[in-house]
Backbone:
């Protein structure tokens, strides 16, 4: 190696030696809390390492990483030789970080058993990360031009394997319905419809009762009329066993909306093949469904899920039909898509305020885009469809019920209008650059990269102004925080986090695609994929190992894993059995004041602290005067 190569290489070796030595000195004399078998002793440090690396990700780390990569790219233009063998040094420094975790776990029992050791590991991990970024970025910059003309295609079997894997991961969610029961506001909002059904008035009577419920709440509580209507018609309104369909219905709605958007955008507009579209939609919908922050709010509590995840899914469907109408080649197809967009626009605009506001922003973005691209023929379909969403959203926010509701809700912090907007930008950056970033997300962006790269290569669009597109995405995502910050002074409600995460994953994927298109147009039509097949498969294999470890070690992070873990431990069975006994009692007893069992607040994949206790609304739903727990006075 030349002198400069030796300097970089030996610098990484020196860091590795110093990190391991300091860790050994730090934990000397410590007695482990617990001893592990040989295999478990090797696996646990890996789990702790990647778990804490993901936990420590924040906007500061993200900013430092971006600045490091940019600086190395500029430096590598002049000093290419220094990174010729950087991969060896990166391997040594990376293994040294793992070895430090192993030493701490071996000597203390847990990575976080002793705070000084955890803080030391945090510093070592940050320096190691910077070292890896410098080495890998420099090495890719040095070796990239030699592989730039290569065409990289994924193997054919992978286009089938990924959708199948997504379906297999979806099965536990569908089957979990047997353990899911109404809770919180499910009983309150559907009590009138249930009473009408019990009285024998049939479906027509139930629909009339739902409309009456909407009219009452619209005047006295809130203007979200489409959500109110769907809340009143929760699947268990006629028979509580029907509620078992909730996980299937809500997750299917989310997946269908994502697939429809990719069909409209990638397949119909950008010219992607069917297998590429299915592959991309499967990857993105898998990540959204499995990694939503508040799982109970997203798919297992109908009232909250249909109001937020449901409304946002309707918005994605609305956007998809608008795009399909704009690209339709025949008049009758355009009319069909416009007709289909209208009800989804009403459902989105009359749902939660975040989805409605986001829809209005999207209409504005599309209007500006069509003007910029001189697509005047697309303006009429946009205005036609947009009218329904804007009208529904206006009726929503101007309802007489909202002022009355605001008077009854205590606001935690008052930021004011301007303060709420500024706070939204701050919170958005913190979550988008830190809290939402995970190994799963990085793996998604990696796996999608060759497919999106090839689609962008064939797309005839020019991909101008990528910075403006990214800024517009950031502004729209920030706007999703504003209504709640303005109304309540906080933003961490689980159901709000779910739809923001939904939007975040979609926007991040589409921005990756747009950036690839811009790079290709800037570098020339023949500019090839930036990773060689060997590098891509190595990184993908490493990502699968990391995410597999995290899924096994922290199953609550992944929806299907959390469900399987709840069934394995018996929490799901105990929760379901308790509620079923309560329902059987309430349906059979003639007493007006009924004592029921207090259901456990686990598993957390089904219940959440933000959701009202189970008995909320049960008295009215089952026609009783009072329903109470044993520890409460009758």
Residues:
């Amino acid at each position: 190696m030349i002198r400069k190569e030796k300097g970089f290489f030996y610098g990484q070796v020196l860091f590795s030696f110093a990190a391991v030595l300091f860790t050994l000195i730090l934990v000397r004399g410590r007695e482990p809390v617990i001893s592990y078998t040989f295999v478990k002793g090797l696996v646990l440090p890996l789990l702790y390492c990647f778990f804490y690396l993901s936990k420590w990700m924040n906007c500061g780390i993200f900013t430092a990483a971006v600045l490091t990569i940019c600086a190395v790219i500029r430096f590598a233009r002049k000093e290419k030789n220094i990174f010729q063998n950087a991969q060896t040094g990166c391997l040594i420094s990376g293994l040294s970080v793992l070895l430090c975790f192993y030493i701490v776990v071996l000597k203390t029992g847990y990575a976080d058993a002793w705070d000084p050791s955890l803080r030391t590991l945090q510093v070592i991990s940050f320096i190691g990360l910077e070292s890896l970024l410098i080495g890998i970025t420099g090495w890719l910059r040095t070796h990239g031009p030699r592989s730039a003309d290569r065409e990289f295609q994924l193997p054919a079997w992978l286009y089938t394997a990924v959708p199948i894997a997504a379906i297999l991961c979806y099965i536990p969610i569908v089957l979990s319905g047997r353990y899911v029961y109404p809770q919180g506001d499910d009983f309150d909002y559907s009590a009138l419809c249930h009473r009408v059904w019990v009285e024998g008035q049939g479906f027509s009577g139930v629909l009339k009762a739902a409309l009456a419920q909407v009219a009452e709440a619209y005047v006295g509580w809130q203007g979200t009329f489409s959500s109110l209507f769907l809340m009143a018609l929760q699947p268990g309104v006629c028979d509580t066993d029907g509620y078992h369909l909730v996980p299937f219905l809500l997750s299917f709605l989310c997946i269908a909306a994502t697939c429809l958007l990719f069909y409209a955008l990638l397949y119909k507009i950008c010219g992607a093949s069917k297998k590429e579209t299915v592959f991309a939609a499967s990857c993105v919908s898998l990540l959204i469904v499995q990694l939503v922050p508040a799982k109970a709010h997203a798919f297992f509590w109908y009232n909250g899920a249909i109001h937020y995840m449901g409304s946002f899914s309707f918005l994605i469907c609305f956007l998809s039909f608008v795009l399909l109408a704009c690209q339709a080649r025949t008049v009758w197809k355009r009319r069909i898509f416009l007709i289909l967009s209208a009800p989804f626009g009403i459902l989105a605009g009359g749902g939660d305020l975040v989805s409605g506001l986001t829809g209005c922003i999207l209409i504005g973005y599309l209007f500006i885009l069509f003007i910029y691209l001189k697509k005047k023929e697309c303006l009429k379909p946009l205005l036609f469809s947009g009218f329904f969403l804007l009208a529904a959203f206006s009726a929503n926010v101007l309802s007489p019920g909202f002022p009355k509701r605001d008077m009854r809700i205590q606001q935690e912090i008052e930021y004011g209008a301007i303060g709420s907007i500024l706070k939204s930008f701050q919170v958005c950056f913190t979550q988008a650059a830190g809290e939402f970033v995970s190994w799963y997300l990085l793996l998604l962006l990696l796996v999608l990269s060759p497919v999106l790269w090839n689609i962008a290569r064939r797309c005839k669009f020019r991909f101008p102004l990528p910075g403006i597109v990214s800024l517009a995405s950031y502004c729209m995502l920030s706007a999703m925080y504003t209504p709640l910050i303005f109304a309540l002074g906080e933003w961490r409600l689980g159901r709000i986090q779910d739809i923001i995460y939904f939007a975040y994953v979609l926007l991040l994927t589409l921005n990756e695609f747009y950036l690839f298109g811009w790079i290709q147009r800037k570098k020339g039509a023949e500019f090839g994929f930036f990773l060689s097949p060997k590098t891509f498969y190595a990184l993908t294999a490493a990502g699968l190992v990391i995410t597999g470890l995290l899924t096994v070690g922290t199953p609550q992070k992944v929806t299907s894993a959390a469900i399987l873990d709840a069934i394995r431990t018996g929490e799901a069975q105990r929760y379901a059995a308790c509620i079923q006994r309560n329902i059987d009692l309430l349906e059979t007893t003639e007493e007006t004041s009924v004592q029921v069992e207090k259901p456990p607040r686990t598993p957390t994949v089904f219940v959440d602290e933000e959701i009202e206790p189970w008995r909320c609304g049960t008295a009215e739903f089952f026609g009783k005067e009072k329903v109470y727990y044993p520890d409460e006075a009758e």
Remarks:
- Residues 156-177+246-562 form one domain.
- The chain is about 75% helix and 0% strand.
- The first strand starts at residue 593 and ends at 595.
- Residues 115-147 form the longest helix (33 residues).
